[in-house]
Amino acid sequence: MNQSFYIGAVGAQQQLRRLNIVGDNIANLNTVGFKADRADFIALMYQNHRGVEEDIPIGVGTRLLMTSTDFTQGPVIDNSRCLDYMIEGDGFFALVDLTTGEVSYTRNGAFNMSELVRNTGEVDENGDPITQTVFCLGDGEGRFVLSNTGGLIEVTDPTQKLPIGIFDYSNYNGMVQLDDTRFLPVDKNGNLWYGTGTLHQGVLEGSNAELAEEYAKVIESQRAYGMALKMVQTSDEIETTINGLRS
User: Buried-most residue among 51, 72, 157, 163 (CB within 10 A)?
Assistant: First the structure.
Protein backbone atom coordinates (compact mmCIF):
# COMPACT_ATOMS: atom_id res chain seq x y z
CA MET A 1 0.00 0.00 0.00
CA ASN A 2 1.27 3.49 -0.89
CA GLN A 3 2.60 5.22 2.24
CA SER A 4 0.64 8.37 1.40
CA PHE A 5 -2.51 6.38 2.23
CA TYR A 6 -1.37 6.01 5.84
CA ILE A 7 -0.16 9.62 6.03
CA GLY A 8 -3.64 10.81 5.01
CA ALA A 9 -5.44 8.42 7.34
CA VAL A 10 -3.35 9.42 10.35
CA GLY A 11 -3.72 13.11 9.50
CA ALA A 12 -7.53 12.90 9.28
CA GLN A 13 -7.78 11.06 12.58
CA GLN A 14 -5.56 13.58 14.39
CA GLN A 15 -7.46 16.58 13.00
CA LEU A 16 -10.67 15.10 14.40
CA ARG A 17 -9.02 14.99 17.82
CA ARG A 18 -7.96 18.60 17.42
CA LEU A 19 -11.53 19.59 16.52
CA ASN A 20 -12.75 18.01 19.77
CA ILE A 21 -10.29 20.16 21.74
CA VAL A 22 -11.30 23.34 19.91
CA GLY A 23 -14.98 22.47 20.33
CA ASP A 24 -14.53 22.19 24.09
CA ASN A 25 -12.88 25.63 24.15
CA ILE A 26 -15.79 27.14 22.23
CA ALA A 27 -18.32 25.48 24.54
CA ASN A 28 -16.62 27.14 27.54
CA LEU A 29 -16.35 30.68 26.19
CA ASN A 30 -18.63 31.88 29.02
CA THR A 31 -17.29 29.58 31.77
CA VAL A 32 -15.78 31.59 34.63
CA GLY A 33 -12.10 30.80 35.19
CA PHE A 34 -11.86 28.45 32.18
CA LYS A 35 -8.41 27.94 30.65
CA ALA A 36 -8.27 27.00 26.97
CA ASP A 37 -6.50 23.85 25.80
CA ARG A 38 -4.00 23.78 22.96
CA ALA A 39 -3.19 20.83 20.65
CA ASP A 40 0.55 20.16 20.25
CA PHE A 41 1.57 18.03 17.26
CA ILE A 42 4.74 16.08 16.49
CA ALA A 43 6.06 14.67 13.22
CA LEU A 44 6.14 10.88 12.87
CA MET A 45 9.49 9.74 11.49
CA TYR A 46 9.89 5.97 11.51
CA GLN A 47 12.79 5.17 9.17
CA ASN A 48 15.57 6.62 7.02
CA HIS A 49 16.02 5.88 3.32
CA ARG A 50 19.36 6.27 1.58
CA GLY A 51 19.37 9.38 -0.60
CA VAL A 52 21.87 10.77 -3.09
CA GLU A 53 23.95 12.58 -0.46
CA GLU A 54 22.35 11.74 2.87
CA ASP A 55 19.59 9.74 4.55
CA ILE A 56 16.04 10.97 3.93
CA PRO A 57 13.61 10.60 6.90
CA ILE A 58 10.41 8.84 5.91
CA GLY A 59 7.34 8.86 8.18
CA VAL A 60 3.56 8.80 8.19
CA GLY A 61 2.58 12.42 8.88
CA THR A 62 1.95 13.91 12.31
CA ARG A 63 0.10 13.01 15.46
CA LEU A 64 -1.25 14.83 18.49
CA LEU A 65 1.59 14.72 21.01
CA MET A 66 -0.19 16.27 23.97
CA THR A 67 -2.85 18.72 25.07
CA SER A 68 -1.45 21.70 26.95
CA THR A 69 -3.41 24.28 28.92
CA ASP A 70 -3.06 28.01 28.37
CA PHE A 71 -2.96 29.64 31.83
CA THR A 72 -2.84 33.25 30.64
CA GLN A 73 -5.08 35.78 32.39
CA GLY A 74 -8.71 35.97 31.29
CA PRO A 75 -10.83 39.13 31.02
CA VAL A 76 -12.39 40.84 34.05
CA ILE A 77 -16.12 40.34 34.65
CA ASP A 78 -17.53 42.99 36.99
CA ASN A 79 -20.87 42.06 38.59
CA SER A 80 -20.34 43.58 42.09
CA ARG A 81 -21.31 40.35 43.87
CA CYS A 82 -19.56 40.35 47.24
CA LEU A 83 -18.71 36.62 47.22
CA ASP A 84 -17.08 36.77 43.80
CA TYR A 85 -13.29 36.95 43.77
CA MET A 86 -10.58 37.18 41.15
CA ILE A 87 -6.82 36.74 41.17
CA GLU A 88 -4.88 39.31 39.18
CA GLY A 89 -1.55 37.75 38.33
CA ASP A 90 -0.24 34.30 39.21
CA GLY A 91 -1.82 31.81 41.59
CA PHE A 92 -4.88 29.68 42.27
CA PHE A 93 -7.69 29.36 44.78
CA ALA A 94 -7.47 26.11 46.77
CA LEU A 95 -10.58 23.94 47.23
CA VAL A 96 -10.72 21.09 49.74
CA ASP A 97 -13.15 18.17 49.70
CA LEU A 98 -13.59 17.28 53.38
CA THR A 99 -14.91 13.81 52.49
CA THR A 100 -11.93 12.68 50.43
CA GLY A 101 -9.31 15.15 51.62
CA GLU A 102 -8.54 16.10 48.02
CA VAL A 103 -7.23 19.63 47.46
CA SER A 104 -7.70 21.01 43.95
CA TYR A 105 -6.87 24.39 42.46
CA THR A 106 -8.93 26.77 40.36
CA ARG A 107 -9.17 30.29 38.96
CA ASN A 108 -12.96 30.24 39.25
CA GLY A 109 -13.80 32.60 42.11
CA ALA A 110 -17.61 32.38 41.97
CA PHE A 111 -18.03 31.31 45.61
CA ASN A 112 -21.01 30.76 47.92
CA MET A 113 -21.82 30.41 51.61
CA SER A 114 -21.94 26.68 52.34
CA GLU A 115 -23.25 25.04 55.50
CA LEU A 116 -20.80 23.06 57.59
CA VAL A 117 -21.79 20.99 60.62
CA ARG A 118 -18.92 20.54 63.06
CA ASN A 119 -18.33 19.39 66.61
CA THR A 120 -17.92 21.99 69.33
CA GLY A 121 -15.77 19.65 71.42
CA GLU A 122 -18.45 19.42 74.10
CA VAL A 123 -21.03 16.74 74.92
CA ASP A 124 -24.60 16.93 76.17
CA GLU A 125 -26.11 15.23 79.23
CA ASN A 126 -26.37 11.97 77.28
CA GLY A 127 -22.73 12.02 76.32
CA ASP A 128 -23.44 12.81 72.68
CA PRO A 129 -21.20 15.37 70.95
CA ILE A 130 -22.69 18.81 70.52
CA THR A 131 -22.57 20.15 66.97
CA GLN A 132 -23.08 23.57 65.48
CA THR A 133 -23.82 24.75 61.99
CA VAL A 134 -21.63 27.47 60.52
CA PHE A 135 -21.37 29.01 57.09
CA CYS A 136 -18.03 28.70 55.33
CA LEU A 137 -16.89 29.89 51.93
CA GLY A 138 -17.36 27.16 49.32
CA ASP A 139 -17.70 26.55 45.61
CA GLY A 140 -21.33 25.40 45.82
CA GLU A 141 -20.40 21.81 44.90
CA GLY A 142 -19.42 20.47 48.32
CA ARG A 143 -15.88 21.83 48.42
CA PHE A 144 -14.58 24.60 50.69
CA VAL A 145 -12.15 27.42 49.98
CA LEU A 146 -8.90 27.50 51.96
CA SER A 147 -7.71 30.65 53.68
CA ASN A 148 -4.23 32.16 53.51
CA THR A 149 -3.32 30.03 56.52
CA GLY A 150 -4.69 26.81 55.04
CA GLY A 151 -7.91 26.61 57.08
CA LEU A 152 -11.58 27.01 56.28
CA ILE A 153 -13.06 30.50 55.97
CA GLU A 154 -16.07 31.15 58.20
CA VAL A 155 -18.37 33.77 56.72
CA THR A 156 -20.17 36.10 59.12
CA ASP A 157 -20.27 39.24 57.00
CA PRO A 158 -20.05 38.43 53.26
CA THR A 159 -19.58 42.10 52.36
CA GLN A 160 -16.19 42.13 54.06
CA LYS A 161 -13.14 41.01 52.07
CA LEU A 162 -12.33 37.48 53.23
CA PRO A 163 -8.81 36.10 53.88
CA ILE A 164 -8.80 33.81 50.84
CA GLY A 165 -5.49 32.10 50.16
CA ILE A 166 -3.63 32.40 46.85
CA PHE A 167 -1.41 29.41 46.13
CA ASP A 168 0.99 28.71 43.28
CA TYR A 169 3.50 26.32 41.73
CA SER A 170 6.78 26.94 39.93
CA ASN A 171 5.33 25.64 36.66
CA TYR A 172 1.94 24.43 35.45
CA ASN A 173 3.10 21.94 32.83
CA GLY A 174 1.24 18.63 33.14
CA MET A 175 -1.35 19.67 35.73
CA VAL A 176 -4.29 17.26 35.65
CA GLN A 177 -7.56 18.89 34.59
CA LEU A 178 -10.39 17.50 36.73
CA ASP A 179 -13.21 19.45 35.10
CA ASP A 180 -13.60 22.71 33.21
CA THR A 181 -11.91 24.86 35.87
CA ARG A 182 -10.24 22.63 38.50
CA PHE A 183 -6.70 21.22 38.38
CA LEU A 184 -4.56 18.81 40.37
CA PRO A 185 -0.76 19.24 40.58
CA VAL A 186 1.75 16.53 39.68
CA ASP A 187 5.29 15.98 40.95
CA LYS A 188 6.99 18.03 38.23
CA ASN A 189 4.98 21.12 39.17
CA GLY A 190 7.26 21.55 42.18
CA ASN A 191 6.46 22.63 45.73
CA LEU A 192 3.39 24.60 46.73
CA TRP A 193 3.98 28.21 47.73
CA TYR A 194 2.05 31.43 48.29
CA GLY A 195 1.02 33.08 45.04
CA THR A 196 2.09 36.58 44.12
CA GLY A 197 -1.26 37.51 42.56
CA THR A 198 -3.55 40.20 43.93
CA LEU A 199 -7.01 39.33 45.27
CA HIS A 200 -9.97 41.41 44.07
CA GLN A 201 -13.52 41.27 45.44
CA GLY A 202 -16.69 41.71 43.40
CA VAL A 203 -15.15 40.68 40.08
CA LEU A 204 -14.53 37.38 38.27
CA GLU A 205 -12.00 36.14 35.74
CA GLY A 206 -13.64 35.15 32.48
CA SER A 207 -12.61 32.40 30.07
CA ASN A 208 -9.36 33.06 28.21
CA ALA A 209 -10.65 31.26 25.11
CA GLU A 210 -11.14 33.72 22.23
CA LEU A 211 -13.94 33.04 19.76
CA ALA A 212 -12.15 34.42 16.68
CA GLU A 213 -9.02 32.38 17.40
CA GLU A 214 -10.97 29.17 18.03
CA TYR A 215 -13.08 29.57 14.87
CA ALA A 216 -9.89 30.08 12.86
CA LYS A 217 -8.62 26.78 14.24
CA VAL A 218 -11.89 25.07 13.30
CA ILE A 219 -11.53 26.23 9.69
CA GLU A 220 -7.87 25.24 9.65
CA SER A 221 -8.63 21.75 10.99
CA GLN A 222 -11.52 21.27 8.56
CA ARG A 223 -9.30 22.14 5.61
CA ALA A 224 -6.52 19.87 6.83
CA TYR A 225 -9.05 17.08 7.40
CA GLY A 226 -10.41 17.45 3.87
CA MET A 227 -6.90 17.49 2.40
CA ALA A 228 -5.97 14.33 4.32
CA LEU A 229 -9.07 12.51 3.07
CA LYS A 230 -8.28 13.66 -0.48
CA MET A 231 -4.85 12.11 -0.08
CA VAL A 232 -6.45 8.82 1.01
CA GLN A 233 -8.80 8.94 -1.97
CA THR A 234 -5.98 9.70 -4.43
CA SER A 235 -3.81 6.91 -3.00
CA ASP A 236 -6.69 4.48 -3.37
CA GLU A 237 -7.19 5.55 -7.01
CA ILE A 238 -3.48 5.03 -7.71
CA GLU A 239 -3.59 1.54 -6.22
CA THR A 240 -6.72 0.74 -8.23
CA THR A 241 -5.03 1.88 -11.45
CA ILE A 242 -1.90 -0.17 -10.70
CA ASN A 243 -3.94 -3.28 -9.91
CA GLY A 244 -5.84 -2.77 -13.17
CA LEU A 245 -2.60 -2.65 -15.14
CA ARG A 246 -1.40 -5.86 -13.52
CA SER A 247 -4.53 -7.69 -14.54
Answer: 163
